[in-house]
Amino acid sequence: MNQHTTIRTPITASRPQCPVGETQCPIVEEVVQLRQQVITDPLTGLFNVRYFRTALAQELERTERTLLPTALIMLDLDHFKQVNDTWGHEVGNLVLQQTARLIRDSTRKLDIHCRYGGEEFAIILPSTERPLAIQVARRLCENIANTPLQCDGHTLNITASLGLALCDASHPWPADRLLNEADKLLYQAKHSGRNQVCYPPLAENLSAVTSAEKDLLHDLFGGADHADDDSEDFAGEEFFSEEE
């Protein structure tokens, strides 16, 4: 499991120059702040959906060029409407802010954290192989569940459902397709009981195995008499959803 730790520079335009050449220029600082506001969600401090779309397109282009995978996590808070209805929108906002903090604390510096809308968040994991992406998603799901919100002497237990999709050499998907796959897995997590991560089974990637690789696997596992048994055992090691 290889972890690429190259930290990427956020997608921003070059810093504007002061028209009169001053080192400290109020106009330049104001322009920089306005640019940051355009790509930032004001409540959580995460990137907004506008930035998300730009960043995802950039990372998928990088995947196409380098063949290094890009993973996408879609996260939705469980029963968030009930929180708003019971405790009010101010408490709901506190839940969103705490979730944003946990997303930042549970992921890596190179990951791109976005508020997608409402109680839904998106995390782009650049140059990330499947095992590491699953590890990050599981850790995030667990940290949210293990960090209740304390409010006016009451404890609010918060959980989230996560869908994880991967764009790699065997699945060179465009942004819309990758987002759709992650969304489908998110709803699978919801329908499977919430508070869990769903991701494609490893068997889905076997379609990319060449015939020569299949022959080698056949030889390693002892021939045709046991091929079906080995396939069943191997497929049983991966689950479509992972309880947290």
UniProtKB/TrEMBL annotation:
Reaction(s) this enzyme catalyzes, per UniProt: 2 GTP = 3',3'-c-di-GMP + 2 diphosphate
One CC-aspect GO term: plasma membrane
SUPFAM superfamilies tied to this protein: Nucleotide cyclase
EC number: 2.7.7.65
InterPro entries: Diguanylate_Cyclase (IPR050469), GGDEF_dom (IPR000160), Nucleotide_cyclase (IPR029787), Rev_trsase/Diguanyl_cyclase (IPR043128)
Provenance organism: Venatoribacter cucullus
Protein name: diguanylate cyclase
Any GO BP annotation: cell adhesion involved in single-species biofilm formation
GO MF annotation: an example: diguanylate cyclase activity
Required co-factors: Mg(2+)
Enzyme class: transferase
Transmembrane segments: none
Ranges of residues in domain GGDEF: 68-202
